[in-house]
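Structural prep section.
Before we set up the soaks we want a predicted structure of the protein with S-adenosyl-L-homocysteine in place, mainly to decide which crystallisation condition to try first. Input record follows.
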Amino acid sequence: MPAATLKDLLVERILAEGPLSIEEYMQACLYHPEHGFYKQLNPIGRLGDFTTAPEISQLFGEIIGLWIVDCWTQMDMPTDILLVELGPGRGTLMVDAIRAIERVSDMPIDLHLVETSPTMRAEQEKRLSATWHDSLETIPKKPVLLIANEFFDALPIRQYRKLTSGWAEVCVGIDASNTTFELVDIELSVEEYPLVTTTDKNIVPDEIIEICQQGIETIGQISRHLASAGGAALITDYGYSGSLSGDSLQAVASHQFVAFLDQPGTSDLTAHVDFGALAAVAIENGVNPLGPIDQGYFLTALGINIRASMLQKNASAAEAQDVDLAVQRLCAPDQMGVIFKALCVTDREIKPAGFEV
Ligand code: SAH
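Run finished without errors. Recording the tokens verbatim:
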């Protein structure tokens, strides 16, 4: 008998337990210990399934490195500073950031990486010397400068649909032939209504809201660390603040959009980040959220164009054109410049670069 695929396992589970929440489905597709998407050798980058800002150009990580040095300087250069990254992927951002940090400052590098995927951790070990953690809980209680790029969008979400009266959870069920996954609404009982923690009063029947519980817990941990030990965090991702996203789930394989419920475990599943919800948790924990601001604005304010011209000085015509294209891709409003945003959270009155106003 051929080995069970992730789809077989999920079909079996739904037949035994009933429909899965989207959170359970995403958790299995992305992080199943044997069949999850992040078990693959090369999920990220040009040769992988999806690409991220640091994989597009070294400029992204370098600019983040300069942002880190600015924060460290405003914090009066603590010598016990920790550099922390959540979900470092292939480690590219941090390699580029550290090169920039070392070029412009004497900031000591004590690197702590939080990564749950053993495959991604092995990739990072090839390029970085660091202490690895399964969660933020084990990071030493010292001031941190923390980076998370395209981390929160990779955390599973739940979806709820407003009904004329009450709410339903959108779940993953299976059709009558037991072969094809389909989305089904499961009505919530009144006791379950508090699961839908939205403060938005303008939601009309049939509208969908998304809640990322793991994201809320993670920003809570970051905020409590900042409140007790000090520092700043920079969260860059695609998302929204204030207005509802509706259904923002997407699946990408080989750089193409694919159907969310097709071939579980073979595509990158993501949801837009609710920056408003993250900022609210920061405030609840007594630290200051700044932004979110558009990624294009952030990178431009930190001098991406100046750094691009420096790179182009020693470049061939083709390389110089690549640099221009990368800046366009990262900053142009119709590319990654507006849909991607940067949120800063800090425990003190510093004004990190880009967030001055
Ligand atoms: N920051 C990288 C990669 C983003 S992909 C980049 O910009 O290229 C998301 C990363 O987060 C992967 O490395 C994934 O394995 C990791 N990850 C996902 N959930 C996690 C969790 N709960 N804790 C730690 N790392 C996690």
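Observations: Residues 38, 44, 52, 54-55, 86-89, 93, 114-117, 120, 149-151, 154 surround S-adenosyl-L-homocysteine (CB under 6 Å).
Flagged for discussion at group meeting.
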